[in-house]
Design goal:
Number of strands: 15
CATH class of the largest domain: Alpha Beta
CATH topology of the largest domain: Rossmann fold
Helix content: 25-40%
Shape: elongated
CATH superfamily of the largest domain: Vaccinia Virus protein VP39
Strand content: 15-25%
Bound molecules: S-adenosylmethionine
Distance between the termini: 44 Å
Order of helices and strands: EEEEEEHHEHEHEHEHEHEEHHHEE
Length: about 400
């Protein structure tokens, strides 16, 4: 069905269409806008009415008069869905999902078996990849979880691609809800005892194509038992992988000369001396001011004539002016500006050791080198991934 937002991009938000409201980096809420309803968050309230017919990607301001927050109205994708779905189990996150999909060589038209369905996070990634010409059979033995997944898949218009079945694959094998030939060429097992499900696979996988498998297990003991059974069942090229996902920040750093560093040290010294000089000047001016004040006071107390009083108050004013001039000068001429005036740098020029023109990363006219920095690990349910493949049976030589 072409109407699934997970398969085709829609430009504007339909009434009751799925929107992923991005509140913060770790908080994305799935909503279906209906006239008269609102989304209430700690960033304010957002009227569903203003979402309908807006473009996906719109930044929506809160309608509350007291809270000036905003949210983004995002188009559903399996990646964003993994961040916003209601968790019913541990889920497979995008870093693992993308690796598994490419290692199992899943592509449009692929036929895939998945067990268990869990929160159907990986199921969405599979559905988007196999697309309209492919199939995903997903099995879950926990009945409420199976029902929720089935409903969600239906709500997302993915039920033509994804077939949800209720059953214990370890005990009974992979029996689809509707009788069908699965003929799958990729298998993903995310359950506690994959080694118990593996022997059942031969009945449902392709007989004429290479079949690839991935088992997702958090403990090494589970991996060992899985590998033993895979070997026994004839699976080849068994390999265990752990995805450790890190974000790498790549940027350009300006190449600076040793003279820049030396000049920077000189600049610090110059600025310190300048500061000391200003402090002494200020102290001197304050002392002079104090002297002038006490002189003026003495004259007033001694009953000196009005001409003298005028002279003294003039003196007092002059001293006050001296102090404020020094302070103003100090404010107006920061050491760096002073330094730039002394040196052949104009304030608009790039100053390699401090204030001056702001240089943008990679700007022409400067020397740059590419550097990278590793950031903290991304959120990913760390499990061991065991991969293997099963070749098709050799043709009969007759
Ligand atoms: N991959 C899923 C996702 O991305 O949302 C999460 C799967 S969850 C960790 C494991 C699921 O396997 C649980 O929902 C559990 O009920 C189901 N399960 C465990 N053993 C099973 C079995 N023998 N047959 C079918 N489902 C099983």
């Amino acid at each position: 069905d072409s109407s699934s937002p997970f398969l085709e991009f829609k430009t504007s938000i339909p009434e009751n269409g799925l929107v992923l409201a991005w509140l913060t980096r770790d908080n994305t809420k799935p909503i279906r806008p209906e006239p008269g309803s609102a989304l209430h968050t700690r960033f304010g309230s957002f009227q569903h009415g203003s979402m309908i017919s807006s473009k996906y990607g719109t930044q929506l301001a809160s309608s509350s008069s007291t809270q000036a927050g905003f949210i983004y109205l995002l188009h559903p994708t399996p990646e964003l869905w993994s961040m916003s779905l209601p968790h019913r189990t541990q889920i497979v996150y995008t870093p693992d999902a993308s690796y598994i999909v490419q290692r199992l060589r899943i592509r449009p038209g692929s036929r895939v078996i998945e067990a268990g369905t869990g929160s159907a996070s990986f199921t969405h990634a599979l559905a988007r990849t196999v697309a309209k010409t492919g199939r995903v059979w997903t099995f879950e033995f926990h009945e409420p979880r199976f029902q929720m997944a089935e409903k969600e898949i239906e709500d997302h218009d993915l039920d033509c691609i994804v077939k949800c079945s209720h059953g214990d694959v370890c005990k009974n094998g992979f029996i689809p809800a509707f009788e069908e030939i699965l003929d799958a060429s990729a298998v993903f097992l995310d359950l506690p005892s994959p080694w118990m499900a593996i022997p059942h696979l031969k009945k449902v996988i392709s007989k004429d194509k290479i079949v690839r498998i991935c088992c997702f297990s958090p403990c090494m003991e589970q991996v060992q038992r899985t590998i033993e059974v895979l070997q026994k069942e004839g699976w080849l090229d068994i390999e265990m992988v752990e995805v450790s996902c890190k974000r790498w920040e790549a940027r350009k750093e300006m190449i600076r000369q040793p003279e820049d560093a030396i000049e920077r040290l000189r600049d610090i010294k110059r600025r310190r001396n300048e500061g000391l000089r200003k402090r002494n000047e200020r102290k001197l001016a304050e002392e002079q001011n104090q002297e002038a004040l006490s002189e003026a006071q003495e004259s007033e107390e001694g009953g000196i004539d009005s001409g003298s009083t005028a002279r003294e108050s003039g003196l007092k004013r002059k001293a006050e002016e001296a102090v404020s001039e020094t302070a103003a000068e100090e404010e107006a001429t920061t050491p760096t500006e002073k330094h730039i005036q002394d040196k052949p740098f104009l304030p608009s020029e790039y100053n390699p050791w401090g204030k001056g023109k702001r240089v943008h990363e990679g700007e022409a006219g400067y020397e740059w080198k590419d550097v990278s920095k590793v950031e903290a690990e991304l959120k990913s349910h760390t499990s061991y991934l065991t991969f293997a493949y099963l070749p098709p049976p050799f043709p009969d030589k007759g």
